[in-house]
TrEMBL record, chain B:
It comes from the Eukaryota. It comes from Gorilla gorilla gorilla (Western lowland gorilla). SMART domains: ARM (SM00185). Transmembrane segments: none annotated. Keywords: Cell projection, Cilium, Cilium biogenesis/degradation, Cytoplasm, Cytoskeleton, Flagellum, Microtubule, Repeat. The keyword Transport does not apply. Pfam families: Arm. Interacts with SPAG16 and SPAG17. It is found in: Cell projection, Cilium, Flagellum; Cytoplasm, Cytoskeleton, Cilium axoneme. This is Sperm-associated antigen 6.
Length: 394, 484
């Protein structure tokens, strides 16, 4: 009981003290709480910071390693490139050295080769001289030919003159004008006249016509109606000597004369001596002169038609089949089909391949194939490859 | 017939001849038709007004229509009319083409009679001669293969006309020339160069040169037809036109590339051309001179080849003795091309004493402008390489200032290295002349003069400077003798 009394007495103060202690502790509690919080926050902050630092360190290590790896890779690449460039430069430099030597050599030997140039110029001048000589010879030859042609022409002219003037020849009775008795020797024209044969009348040039109409009409006047001898008439109508020769056997007297002496002017003098008649050959020519129509008449009026006919005839020769080509089958309805010879034989077609030796060893006489003794013809293997490309259509 | 044309030379409206002849063309009798056509042809041939009258009176369609039907005399006469009308001017030729004459003329080219072919080819030639469109029209009508066939015919006159027709077709443009070559004409033309007839050779060479002038490929094709060295014999022909055309052909071939020029040189063409130049006069020389210029222009080796073939004396002869300015200009140009490569070449030109001639041509007032320009260029080109001092000295005296500059420059290049030349320079009075030249200080001329003066000791330079005697006399005047 005492304690109870003491407690009861103290109860108010206990309560006060209780309250007082609680309330006194409260601020301490708050303070301590704050302090604890502070301590804790600071400590946690330290913890976190150290953790972060740790993380930082680790991350730095990782990044360091990774970046160094990348850097090394990059470095390798750069080194490769630099190496490559250096080698290329080296090769270039070496190649330039080689090329320099070679180009200098080539230029000295071939391009600006002085000795070669001298040789070349010497060859050119030799060619020039050769060409000049050849051209001079050519010109000389041409001149010579021309002179010869001129001389020949002069000869012919003089000969022709002599033949035209041959009647001025001196005879036994009468000296000709070139053989005057007061001269020591006869004029050279005299000798010329003696050599020349007399001219007979020139026959006009006749065009050879091959159209049948005219000669049919003139058949009765052709020279075949003359009495013939063994000798055939000469081919060229112009040769008067030949014609005289061919016609003279008709007259026996001339035959004898021909046998003894040379022809030409002797025959003429004989004929002159025969009397007041004209030369028989001339007379016959004049009487039976063949017709020489003008060019205009010689062309038939329907020449174009004739030419067309001829063209048609030639084309007809080339035709295989004369029947006109009829396109539609209705035209051929009533015709019996005639098979071609190839289809209508009783033997069948031979296989194409069997006919060749190379495919058909059964045909060989001995068991070996032919061997090529002569080489094949190489000409055509080069065809088209030897010609220059100039002028080909692009 | 000719007296008839003279009397009727009055304006067509009054005479009415054309309408009369036109009705006669439709006559029944063939001889009258032919004679009427011949009359029309002679009228049109005489004068281009009459040819226009023929065209205006609508005669051409009638001619063309009956050209296809009639006999060969009529065809010849009608082709003669077409030729006579077509030769005067391009408009008349166009009128002929417009009325469809080309097809019938080409059909006439296939005729059997060589006279008809000749007349048709002549008409086609005169039509194609004017310009490229008309030539193209002739080619489109299919004339070229037939003309090539005509060339192979035996008649000389036909060959001549066909060759001249091909030449006139090919001359306008490279495509037309290519058409002619594609028809295989070149081989036949090349074969016929050996034909002795002069007119035929003239036409053939003209045709080949017209073909080869357009491009390198065409020139190569002509060369492949093996015309060298046959064409060189044509240079010795008696006929002037043959020589001219042969040198034209060689010129057209040589001008394209150095390889072709080399080919010509290797075949000895240069010597032949030089001889040809020597034997001709006047305009016939011109292609030969130009050919030498073209060959020398390509490279210095070729120029040296021209020099050793004795081309330079011949060219200088041409330069001095030809009266015509254009030939002189060509010779001056050729000499410039030869001498411009190296000092050797310039020396070869200068030795023949052509430089004074060139200078006089440049300075003379009578020369044409073209001649002056070309001789000036030639002088400049040669002078820039010339180290042959005896030839340069006359230039010091009478050259104009712009050339003097180059001359003095050349002296200043040569004199420092050659003592003999220095001595010669002094003794011949060149140093004196150089001192007398007035040049602005600082100009190129003054530099050259200074470099020349620096080759000599100072006393000599002062001795030759102008007015030296005056200064000496002044010194005498001002000299006080020592009183003994």
């Amino acid at each position: 009981m005492a304690t109870l009394a003491r407690l009861q007495a103290r109860s108010s103060t206990v309560g006060n003290q209780y309250y007082f202690r609680n309330s006194v502790v409260d601020p301490f509690r708050k303070k301590e709480n704050d302090a604890a919080v502070k301590i804790q926050s600071w400590f946690r902050g330290c913890q976190v910071r150290s953790y972060i630092r740790h993380l930082n360190r680790i991350v730095t290590i990782i990044q360091k390693w990774w970046r160094s790896f990348l850097g090394r890779k990059q470095y390798q690449l750069t080194v490769q490139v630099a190496y490559y460039t250096m080698m290329m430069n080296l090769y270039n430099a070496m190649a330039v050295r080689i090329q320099r030597r070679w180009r200098g050599y080539r230029v000295r030997k071939y391009l600006f080769n002085y000795y070669y140039l001298k040789e070349y110029l010497k060859v050119v001048s030799e060619t020039n001289d050769a060409i000049r000589k050849a051209l001079e010879e050519f010109a000389e030859m041409k001149e010579r030919e021309e002179k010869k042609a001129n001389l020949e022409r002069e000869e012919k002219k003089r000969d022709y003159q002599a033949r035209k003037m041959h009647y001025l020849l001196s005879t036994k009775q009468i000296p000709g004008i070139y053989n005057s008795p007061f001269r020591k020797e006869p004029d050279p024209w005299e000798l010329q006249l003696q050599k020349a044969k007399p001219l007979t009348h020139r026959r006009p040039k006749v065009k050879q016509k091959d159209s049948t109409s005219l000669t049919d009409w003139l058949a009765c006047t052709s020279t075949r109606s003359f009495p013939r001898s063994e000798i055939l008439p000469p081919i060229n109508r112009k040769q008067c000597q030949g014609w005289a020769q061919w016609l003279t056997p008709v007259i026996p007297a001339l035959w004898e004369a021909k046998a003894d002496r040379s022809q030409g002017q002797e025959i003429k003098t004989i004929l002159d001596n025969m009397g007041p008649f004209r030369d028989i050959t001339e007379v016959l020519e004049q009487r039976y002169r063949p017709l020489e129509p003008t060019l205009r008449v010689a062309e038939p009026i329907d020449e174009l038609k004739l030419a067309r006919e001829e063209l048609r005839r030639e084309e007809w020769l080339q035709n295989v089949n004369d029947n006109m080509f009829l396109p539609f089958s209705s035209y051929h309805k009533n015709e019996k089909y005639i098979p071609s010879m190839h289809l209508s034989s009783k033997y069948g077609p031979v296989s194409y391949k069997e006919q060749f030796r190379s495919e058909n060893p059964k045909k060989w006489i001995c068991d070996k194939d032919f061997q090529t003794v002569l080489p094949s013809f190489e000409l055509f293997s080069k065809y088209g490859k030897l010609y220059s490309k100039a002028g080909q259509i692009v | 017939m000719h007296s008839l044309t003279m009397d009727l030379w009055i304006p067509n409206g009054q005479a009415g001849v054309m309408s009369l002849l036109r009705t006669l063309l439709l006559d029944v009798v063939p001889t009258i038709q032919q004679t009427a056509a011949l009359a029309l042809g002679r009228l049109a041939n005489y004068n281009d007004d009459l040819a226009e009258a023929v065209v205006k009176c609508d005669i051409l369609p009638q001619l063309v229509y009956s050209l296809a039907e009639q006999n060969r005399f009529y065809k010849k006469a009608a082709a003669f009319v077409l030729r006579a009308v077509g030769k005067h001017s391009p408009q008349l030729a166009q009128a002929i083409v417009d009325c469809g004459a080309l097809d019938t003329l080409v059909i006439c080219l296939e005729d059997f009679d060589p006279g008809v072919k000749e007349a048709a080819a002549w008409a086609l030639r005169y039509i194609a001669r004017h310009n490229a469109e008309l030539s193209q029209a002739v080619v489109d009508a299919g004339a070229v293969p037939l003309l090539v066939l005509c060339i192979q015919e035996p008649e000389i006159a036909l060959k001549r006309i066909a060759a001249s027709a091909l030449s006139d077709i090919a001359k306008h443009s490279p495509e037309l020339a290519q058409t002619v070559v594609d028809a295989g004409a070149v081989a036949h033309l090349a074969q016929m160069i050996l034909n002795p007839d002069a007119k035929l050779k003239h036409q053939i060479l003209s045709a080949l040169s017209q073909v080869s002038k357009h491009s390198v490929d065409l020139a190569e094709m002509v060369v492949e037809a093996e015309i060298f060295p046959v064409v060189l014999t044509c240079l010795k022909d008696k006929d002037e036109y043959v020589k001219k055309n042969a040198s034209t052909l060689i010129r057209e071939i040589a001008k394209h590339t150095p390889e072709l020029s080399q080919l010509v040189v290797n075949a000895g063409g240069v010597a032949a051309v030089i001889d040809c130049i020597g034997s001709c006069k006047g305009n016939t020389r011109l292609p030969g001179i130009m050919m030498l210029g073209y060959v020398a222009a390509h490279s210095e080796n070729l120029a040296m080849a021209v020099i050793i073939s004795k081309g330079v004396p011949q060219l200088s002869v041409c330069l001095s003795e030809e009266p015509e300015d254009h030939i002189k200009a060509a010779a001056a140009w050729a000499l410039g091309q030869i001498g411009r490569h190296t000092p050797e070449h310039a020396r070869a030109v200068a030795v023949t004493n052509t430089l004074p001639v060139l200078l006089s041509l440049y300075m003379s007032t009578e020369s044409s402008e073209d001649l002056q320009v070309k001789s000036k260029k030639a002088i400049k080109n040669i002078l820039q390489k010339c180290t042959y001092l005896p030839a340069l000295e006359p230039f010091l005296y009478d050259a104009p200032p712009n050339i003097l500059k180059h001359v003095v420059g050349q002296f200043s290049k040569v004199l420092p290295h050659d003592s003999k030349a220095r001595r010669l320079f002094v003794t011949s009075g060149g140093l004196k002349k150089v001192q007398e030249i007035k040049a602005e200080p600082g100009s190129l001329l003054q530099e050259y003069i200074n470099s020349i003066n620096s080759c000599y000791p100072e006393e000599i330079v002062r001795y030759y400077s102008p007015g030296y005697s005056d200064t000496l006399l002044q010194r005498v005047d001002s000299y006080q003798p020592l009183n003994n």
